[in-house]
Amino acid sequence: MAYSKIIHTKSEVAGAIPDGSSLSYGEIAINYSDGHMYIRKSDDVVQKIASVDDSAKITIIEGGINVLEAKLIETSLLLSEEMLTSEIITSDVELGGINQLDTVPVASSLQDFIKQLLLRTEYPTFVSPYVDITSDAGINVESGTNNIVLTAGFDQGDILGKKVAGIWQANVSYGFNSGAANTYEFFNDSTSLASGTSDNYNVTLTIDDGVNTFSVDTQYAEGTQAIDSNGADFGDPLPAGNVGDTVIIYGRRNAFYGTSVAASSPNDNAGIRALGGTKINPGNNTTFAISIPAGAAHVVFAYPSTIRDVTSVIEGVLNSPVTGAFTQSTVSVEGANAYTAVDYKVYTFTPTLPFADAATYTVTI
To answer: Which of the listed ranges 52-61, 94-103, 339-348 does the model predict with the highest average pLDDT?
Structure first.
């Protein structure tokens, strides 16, 4: 393919600039002696649009920019050095995040100082994990009881202190102090009863008279990593460990009371235990009320013979003492589930005729 040759208006005269009348609009003219290129604009002005000198000028400009940039860096460094503290400054006032006797370190920048002033570092507080062991029957049960559920209530503790909407809240929970419980081991004295993941245990041992000691040992996993108000780790997570608790269940004897319509009054173990009312662990000054229905032939109450004689029995309507109407005897009475019998004082009142009306007797030992 043949190429067409394009010849622009040109001049070899150094310094020559084309006249506008010699160029059409947009036409290019070249002075190939100077190495300049011109164009006629729409306003009839002939404008130089390129030159071999441009590259050298750009190089000069770039050099100037580099020099200026170096000067700016040097000035910035000098300013930075002038704005650093030249000695340790100890505060004698409390201001913002700076307390009395706090120090501003040597060579601290303005930014460092402002951060120290405005950003007080707050630290979390900790609530330790713990476990409570409780009995579904309470701490006083009838001697001979053999079905009690022990429950271990494990609390993972707490990490207090957290930023809420950018503000440190000292009493807001950040998370649990410990990990979850993974093992509960229940003991009777020092004898292990059960170990596993269940937090309760059904005790089938017989509760003896007096002190019965049960305990739990709870193993827990590693806790949560605490952070301070700046988001930095604070200490280490609480390591895996264990906590324990003890509960004493007392085997106690009941007082029994009630009425009977039978021909003869209750005077043996079965009859005493069949009375409708009970009072766990009676003692001096214990009081209970016997509701007597019409038709009752006998009023009976009984309690362990180690306790003093009854102090008073008061009839409710007339508020009159009827203590002397009762006769006392001794009966051997078992605990729950035929547990070892002990002597009881048994008080019995058998009126000439059954009660015609309902009544209430208040007994005070």
So the answer is: 339-348
Q: Given 225, 252, 279, which residue is the final one in a domain?
A: 252
**Model confidence at 183: pLDDT above 90:** yes
Q: Contact, 93 vs 69, CB < 8 A?
A: no
Give dist(CA 141, CA 135) in Å, integer.
Answer: 10
Angle at 8 between CA 4 and CA 12, to 5 degrees: 130
Confidence grade of residue 79 (pLDDT, cut at 50, 70, 90): very low
User: 337 and 268 in one domain?
Assistant: yes
Q: What is the CATH number of the domain that holds 183?
A: 2.60.40.10
In a domain, 65, yes or no: no
Q: What confidence score (pLDDT) does residue 9 get?
A: 76
Domain carrying residue 14 = 9-52
The reply to whether 32 falls in a domain is yes
In a domain, 273, yes or no: yes
- 268 and 175 both lie in a single domain: no
Burial class (CB in 10 A: 0-12, 13-18, 19+), 291: middle
d(Cα 205, Cα 296) in Å, to the nearest integer? 39
Look up the pTM and report it.
Answer: 0.67
CB 234 within 8 A of CB 227: yes
pLDDT tens for each residue of 248-284: 999 999 999 999 999 999 999 999 999 999 999 999 9
